[in-house]
Amino acid sequence: MTGAKTNQVDQRPLSITDLLHFIPYDLQQTFLFEAILSYGKIYNLYPIKWVFLIALALFEIGSLICGAAPSSVGLIMGRVVAGIGSGGLFAGAILLVAEFKPLNERAFYNGMLGAMYSVASVAGPLMGGAFTERVTWRLCFYINLPLGVVTAVIVFLLVPNNYDSGRDSRRGLPLKKKLQEMDLYGLVVLVPTIICILLATQWGGTKYSWGNARIIALFVVGFVLFVAFVVIEIWQGDRAIVPPSLVKRRTVWACSIFSFCLFGSFLVVAYFLPLWFQAIKGDTATESGIHNLPSILGTTIFSVAAGGMVFGLGYYTWACILGSVLAAVGAGLLSTLEVDSNAAKWIGYQVLYGAGCGFGLNQPLIAIQAALPDFQKSEGTAVVIFMQTFGGTIAIAVAQNVFNNKLVSNILAAGIPVDPAALLSVGATKLQGLVQPQFFGRLQLAYNDSITQTFYVAVATAGLSMAGSILIPWLSVKQAVAPEDAETANTVMPFQHPSSDVDLAMPAILRQSGEIASEDSQSSDIEKVPRNNEVSTYDSQTSEVEKSSVGSTNRKVESIRN
């Protein structure tokens, strides 16, 4: 709800332009992107509990400022503060689960977190529209205050203070060194990079043509700044907000591609489908929310179900692939909706699409937990969430362009006596008052065609997400149990790298038992990150972390020696 763009501090109903600008370029989005990556570092440098509570406090303060804003300037400033705070909330929740639950159980809990996130993404704007139409837009922000207080109390009372004190050796650094770890150079360059890209995608094809000098200049400057950002990240090394060693890992970049595309598809459907109900079926904001329940329920149920299935099967890559396929098919079916489509169609299509998003959206965060050592998990989580959020922003901007251009061309082609600019400036429920009754049928057809065209964007992005899903390595969230006899010691399990877990784990086990005196004498490609009686080892050839239980690996070592 707090993401809904409010151009004026008044009590007018949300217009189509307001809804289409739900996630465009603005200061909150820019600072949100910055904050997401920054929190990846901050969670390594400071205790997760207190960073999460501070982020929540900033979000609450920003919401309070927005709700009480006497002018648009106050609203903008409040959204900046809220954006800085909200950037650390979802990543913090994921990391808190990672601290208290073993890897094989995190899929289920992350599934529930993802289900709630999906519900909020769809229901939030609809509730915001209802508040704006029936009460006041300020309630969109004030409602966050009691919810945030309850969350803060729960985290404060139930999460121990020093549970992760040994998580990262950098936590003992002085403040000056910690500031150097934050990669301020990269952050400074990233701000104008994001602004240029978002402005170009938002203005191109609407305010200016794609060939306009302003749009070309924005893309060129954005590209140059992006190159500069990459150079800075390489120069900064492990201090970078996006460390090159992290980007090289197949799991990270494959999950980033997948999340960028699938979440972009999800947001396009989430924000244009309610418009279809309001414009074509004559729903109010509240009614469109009710008719959108099949999508919400589909995403929620299958998100939890996927988490349980990953917990049982051990693998998550299959869920990403299945999610891409179902989402692409579901979005394609939604693009066939007509003015006279019956309930069976729009309910069934929503359930299918929701199932795809439910299966796929949360798995990249599980993949990060399975593939990365502890000291990189917060940064890896932040990168994936950043790409997810950025992908949604770009997809919405592209879909907005498609809708605006198609609607204008349809209105002109149908000869409907209405100003397209005036049509875009009113709410979707106010269409009948714009034209004479004999033209309303043609207006509905023009609107239907324009909205369903945006679902092609959802089809394309869901289809592209498959490129990322099939590249995500098949790693298991279950602990590897070593065979008891030497004959089967080298047996390769399905989807397992041919290198045995003994080969990978032995240096770490020997170091732990004192048989190797110095860690420096071993290859730097092997990292020891103990947790929950596990030893995590990293093989540079596979670029993944493989885990084995200390006890079972000792048995395998003994078996080989014999």
Can you walk through the features of this model?
InterPro entries: MFS (IPR011701), MFS_dom (IPR020846), MFS_trans_sf (IPR036259), Sugar_transporter_CS (IPR005829). It is a multi-pass membrane protein. This protein is mostly helical. The protein folds into two domains: 16-182 and 241-415 and 443-469, MFS general substrate transporter like domains (Growth Hormone, Chain: A, Up-down Bundle); 486-561, no CATH class. Helices cover 69% and strands 2% of the residues. It has a two-stranded antiparallel sheet. A hairpin with a 4-residue loop joins strand 1 (534-539) and strand 2. The radius of gyration is 25 Å and the shape is globular. The chain starts with 15 loop residues before the first helix and ends with a helix.
Low-confidence stretches: 2-25, 480-562
Question: At CATH's second level, what is the architecture of the largest domain?
Answer: Up-down Bundle
| Helical residues, percent | 55-70%
| H/E series | HHHHHHHHHHHHHHHHHHHHHHEEH
Tally the helices: 23
What structural class should be given to the helix and strand makeup?
mainly alpha
CATH topology of the largest domain: Growth Hormone, Chain: A
Mean pLDDT: 77
Beta-sheet strand percentage? under 5%
Distance between the termini: 64 Å
Q: Radius of gyration, rounded? A: 25 Å
Q: For the record, what CATH class of the largest domain applies?
A: Mainly Alpha
Structure at a glance:
Helix content is 69%, strand content 2%. The chain is mainly alpha-helical and 562 residues long.
